[in-house]
Amino acid sequence: MIQEKNNTTLTFEDFKIEVLNDYTTAVISRECSLLGRKEVLTGKAKFGIFGDGKEVPQLAMAKAFKNGDFRSGYYRDQTFMMAIGQLTVQQFFAGLYGHTDLEQEPMSGGRQMGGHFATHSLNDDGSWKDLTKQKNSSSDISPTAGQMPRLLGLAQASKIYRQVSGIPNAANFSVEGNEIAWGTIGNASTSEGLFFETINAAGVLQVPMVMSVWDDEYGISVHAKHQTTKENISEILKGYQKEKGTNGFEILRVKGWDYADLVATYVKAADIARENHVPVLIHVNEVTQPQGHSSSGSHERYKNADRLAWERDFDCIRQMKLWMIAINIASPEEIEAIDAQAKKDVLEGKKAAWNAFIEPIISEQKELISLLQKIGDTSKNKETILTFISELSSNKTPLKKEILVAARKTLRLALSENGREELSQWITSYTDKTQKNFSSNLFSETDLNVFSVKEVLPVYPEDAKEDTDGRMILRDNFDAIFTKYPEVLIFGEDAGAIGDVNQGLEGMQEKYGELRVADVGIREATILGQGIGMAMRGLRPIAEIQYLDYLLYAIQIMSDDLATLRYRTVGKQKAPLIIRTRGHRLEGIWHSGSPMGMIINAVRGIHVLVPRNMTQAAGFYNSLLECDEPALVIECLNGYRLKEKMPLNYGDFKTPIGVVETLKEGADITLVSYGSTLRLVQQAAKELLEVGIDCEIIDLQSLLPFDINQDIVKSIKKTNRLLVIDEDVPGGASAYILQQIIEQQDAYVYLDSKPQTLTAKAHRPAYGTDGDYFSKPSTEDIFEKIYGMMNEVNPSKFPNLY
């Protein structure tokens, strides 16, 4: 374990002790990889992906890594985590076994496969720890290069803390912006667009980021000649090299088996990034991967004999041994003793992890067997139940699933027999207790969740008129937000100098500065990444994606990283990022999409809010800033110039999240919609009144969460009919809305007619002025759909239109 030291000169004896400690960590990590693979192949573990071959470079990285720093890496960094004291042998194997006890497996409580690392940023109540007093690792994800966008934000946070004053509790997150964000990636993954997008953005922003590329020349079985131009990532990134008077990167190269040069290189990189906020790329080449990519195969299948021989010779641990002997740090005998002790320590740690994993399950197995035996003794299905008992008893390494399967199958056979009630209660209790280990913390379970915020209505002057452009409501509310919350910053394409494309931020950059209201390049994925990383370090970023259609560039980052962060850390990390965008009805394929079904099904873990006007949107921003959860706010693209009343209490009024609003009461049919389409629904309802049809109109306001008070079913009890109007494609968000109303709220009980939907066409709207009318529900479409439903009810009163 690396301890932070003062800048004092080491004696040779001190140096020797430190090197031997490093070597011991490397050997322990290697033994974990070797034994871990055996655990997979013998069936105790499900899958393994290990960090062997990268041990020595990661030791060097750990020596330059200080308290307050953050890592954003990938699944080869086990040695680094051990070296900074954040991963033990027992925890390593607990992760391999998928132990759901966070005390045993603190990285993800068994929710991610081994090799995915994290530290705890939060206390049990969801409040922040002092991140400057610990070494930090953001939670890993598996998607290739997916760690890159977040890395950018983690680094940018240091720049914000150094240059923006007045941020509350800043001392818990930064010491004058001196923290580095350390990234790691495999050489093959540098082919991903996310890598290049992040590298370019970091070079522009000039943030303290040190990016390590572990280059072992392969991406699984595919050689670098198929991956990278010139087979050399640092060679093709030469254009990013920082020169006098320019921005860019410092680019360093080092061999992955040269301990001394690695240590010197990482110290140099840290000095550059930490002091000057200049990003650094370290290309660590001549790295090996002794066991191949994962436990699913062997590298002997795709590496020739010469390559395999070279890898044996230039294995980093072997080379470190030779170096230690050459400069008299240790004798061969001393090294052999370290190796032998490492094997013993790893074996003991593995056994402890396995016992901690299996013993509670065996205890549950015995408890159920005892209960089943009581039932079986008097059951008419005794023979079958005894078979279940025999199969379960013979299983020496049972899974929770296997225990529950035996219990549930027995219950079917004991429906009218003694012991049924006790078994039923046991199953219910066991399922409730166990399910939490797999399903908790998708959203915040602290007092800072969105439901803790109470509605505060806008306050208006007595003579208030609807004569203010909606965009001015947003602008003045953002002004109040920036004053009230110094930790809030907003950034996006055209968000700065011109105050966004719709002037909702007009004048804000001039008033609050270029760091808090910032323009960025056209790079949606890393805009999201900036927000995620900064939110993980205590800031309250608002990441602006110019149009809803462009969100698709960032949907993978939203889905795989942001939406899963709290879940995959079992509530030990959070990123309360607000994503601002605009969408819905306008002209053209690329500026009027409403892919809501795609979004809501990809981002569970993020709240999706769909305000119909700008006052409602402003209220959502105010609400979210009192919560600790991420959210997407979709403003109505055609609503910025529509007139609204100007509130008096900017920054304070709050739109409730998950609560619907009834815009018009009615007796004949319940209409459910959201966003821009509501204006058409309201107009159609006026016209329907003229023919004797009285509609009730409900504005969903948010899709995730959905109608937490179940007000829609209360409306349906009165009207007995339902129509969902949606501008997404058929079967998009409308299918989700129906599922929530019919299945979750049991509204089918009160329906006298088939529930129906009215959606956009399956294609996107054409550009021409008529494109919207012929592509998405129009007032006439809504009128005729409702009229047709009422024709079914009373054809004499509402004769066919066609």
From TrEMBL:
E.C. no:
1.2.4.4
Pfam families in UniProt: E1_dh, Transket_pyr, Transketolase_C
| Family matches, as Gene3D superfamilies | 3.40.50.920, 3.40.50.970
| Enzymatic class | oxidoreductase
Where would one find coiled-coil regions in this protein?
Answer: none
GO molecular function terms here?
branched-chain 2-oxo acid dehydrogenase activity
Show the stretches that span the lipid bilayer. Answer: none
Q: Which GO terms describe its biological process?
A: branched-chain amino acid catabolic process; response to nutrient
Q: Which UniProt keywords apply?
A: Oxidoreductase, Thiamine pyrophosphate
Q: Which residues form the Transketolase-like pyrimidine-binding domain?
A: 468-642
Q: Which cofactor does it need?
A: thiamine diphosphate
Against InterPro entries, the record matches this protein to: DH_E1, THDP-binding, Transketo_C/PFOR_II, Transketolase-like_Pyr-bd, Transketolase_C
Q: What does this protein do?
A: E1 component of the 2-oxoglutarate dehydrogenase (OGDH) complex which catalyzes the decarboxylation of 2-oxoglutarate, the first step in the conversion of 2-oxoglutarate to succinyl-CoA and CO(2).
- Protein name, UniProt field: 3-methyl-2-oxobutanoate dehydrogenase (2-methylpropanoyl-transferring)
Q: Which organism is it from?
A: Flavobacterium caseinilyticum
Q: What is the lineage of its organism?
A: Bacteria, Pseudomonadati, Bacteroidota, Flavobacteriia, Flavobacteriales
